[in-house]
Amino acid sequence: MSEEQLRELLQRFQDGEEEAGETLFLHLQPLVSAYARRMALRDEERDDYFQAGMIGLLKAAQRFNPARGVKFITFALSWIEGEMRLYRRRNITALKVSRSLLERSIELASCREQLTQILQREPTVGEIARALGIASEEVALIMESSLPISSFDEEIFSSLEESSEEEELLERLALYEGMIRLTPLERQLIALRFFNELTQAEVAGRLSLSQRQVSRLEKRALRQLRSYMQPES
Q1: All structural domains of the chain with their residue ranges
Q2: How far is Cα 217 from Cα 182, in angstroms, rounded to an integer?
Q3: Contact assessment for residue 105 and residue 145, using Cβ atoms and an 8 Å cutoff
Q4: Number of neighbouring beta carbons within 10 Å of residue 204
Q5: pLDDT digits (tens, 9 = 90+) for 118-173
Q6: pTM for the complete prediction?
Q7: CA Rg, the chain, in Å?
Q8: Torsions phi, psi for 5 (to 5 deg)
Q9: Burial of residue 162 (number of CB atoms within 10 Å: 0-12, 13-18, 19+)
Q10: What is the CA angle 198-139-113, rounded to 5?
Q11: Which of 185, 233, 228 is nearest to 96 (CA)?
Q12: CATH architecture for residues 3-91
């Protein structure tokens, strides 16, 4: 089914035509099912992930706005994955976040406040790092984990809106604890690729590597992060 046909069904569904919605969901069920197989840790969990994914698909269909210039499949996949991850957080296991990192985040916030009062200005990352006796890189990662999600994240992953602030913080801390476990080169590469949004060719130029080396390092780093973020079975 073409993008144009999908958008026509979506418009009719949003206008209240239930039959159009049924046709749309039936067509996209295999996609949701495939994603459920990927997300489920055990075969018996696939149906639950599938149901969560269908909820995400429904929310995507209700909220999709073609004027934003995003393909519906791309938009829907974000919602489908978001609902599945929400199901995982609520029903499978807690995220693997170390107590030490949570405590370090609280300690950093307190130190930052004290330095602000002493210096009468916002302290630099280096000043906080020296006060805490840790690397500046680690301070930056922990500080980043406490920032509110961007407007883009809110728009694309708003299927997670029911999760608590604590859950969002835990997920951030899990990600950035995973980042700390990467090598310095891998961390720099991930930051350039996904925070600064550079292409692999641009990253290769920045790091004096070949594009093939960048691709290989990126895949390895993402695989390690993915493994760390996955709940234990």
Answers
A1: 3-91, 94-177, 181-233
A2: 11
A3: yes
A4: 19
A5: 888 888 878 888 898 887 767 766 765 554 433 333 333 443 344 444 455 556 65
A6: 0.43
A7: 21
A8: -65, -40
A9: exposed
A10: 125
A11: 228
A12: Orthogonal Bundle (1.10)
- CATH number for domain 181-233, candidates 2.40.160.10, 1.10.10.10, 3.30.1330.10, 3.40.50.300: 1.10.10.10
Both tokens assigned to 187: 């961390």
- Residue labelled with tokens 């930056």: 140
What is the distance, to the nearest Å, from the Cα of residue 218 to the centroid of all Cα atoms in its chain? 16
Please choose, from the candidates 109, 91, 95, 87, the residue with its C-alpha nearest in 3D space to the C-alpha of residue 32.
87
How many C-beta neighbours within 10 Å does residue 140 have? 18
In sign, the C-alpha dihedral spanning 86, 88, 92, 94 is negative
Q: Identity (one letter) of the amino acid at 34? A: A
pLDDT tens per residue, range 164-222: 444 555 566 566 667 777 888 888 888 788 767 788 999 999 888 999 999 999 888 88
CB atoms within 10 A of CB 3: 11
